[in-house]
Write the structure tokens for this entry.
Amino acid sequence: VRHTLVAAVAAVITVVVTSGEARAFCRERTCDPNDLKQQCEFNDNCVISGHLLQWRNSCVSFDAQEDGSPRYGIDASTVTEVAGRAFAPWLVADCGGGAGPSMKVGTFGPVECDEVSDSRRSNEKGANVIMFRDDVWPYTGAIDAYALTTVNFDTDTGEIIDADIEVNSAGVFQISVDGTTGTDLQSILTHEAGHFLGMAHAATDDHTATMRANWDGVGTDLRTLTSDDEAGICDAYPPTRQAASDCEPLNGFASACHVPADEPSGGGCALVPARPAGDSAPSALLGVCALVVARTIRRRKRA
Ligand SMILES: [Zn+2]
């Protein structure tokens, strides 16, 4: 029986005025610092007790929710493209000797499901969804968050089961993709991609790290990782790590919500491999995979 918890993390708008020096990255662990009963141990603000979170395989997929953000006129294919650019710097991080992390990211294409995966439903197919909350931001405890990434994991091992990213497009942030006006979606998603891959907030309020806890929403500097961010992803997925290369979710990919794990998928689906090193386009690391068959058991009604 798999026991899972949900770790919700968010970037907040608060501008921190204390000047922090660059410190070590933090990785998410099974111990939840927000649950005092777990009595997590800390080093600075880094949790050091519990298992480290990590995807089991050396590839993971994300999928844009098919509606995108009607409010901001961002369609699903644009979300896919921007998210690909957001994942790219993590995948090409310098782990020393010219080697990058042993992790690839692919996508099956936009999906129908617009729900965050429920850890109690571990026997379902699914997708790791990037979705927008245009109408209501449901997280009253994180009202000032640009986005929120929910990571389900096995508490016994730290294996990440799935991760979903919700962008707060219902609030005051003027989400934009042009990099010059409003709050930059690629910057938000670069930070959330770090959470998606198992990174926690940097231990101190480093004003430059992509994984800093606080961001004023101005500019695009979160798009660029610091050496500390890069050290974090290299620690999680060292170049020499041996892992299966399958990019599908644990119980298989499904576009719809709540597809039972034993539902036949009806078709295989291979991801395009990364282009050889030296290719200049970082988004080339994003394998695009056409969905062959999407069987749905239950379709949800949209308002
Ligand atoms: Zn965050």
Remarks:
- Helices lie at 76-91, 185-196, 227-236.
- Residues 115 and 154 are 20 Å apart (CA to CA).
- The longest strand covers residues 145-154.
- DSSP finds three helices and 15 strands in the chain.
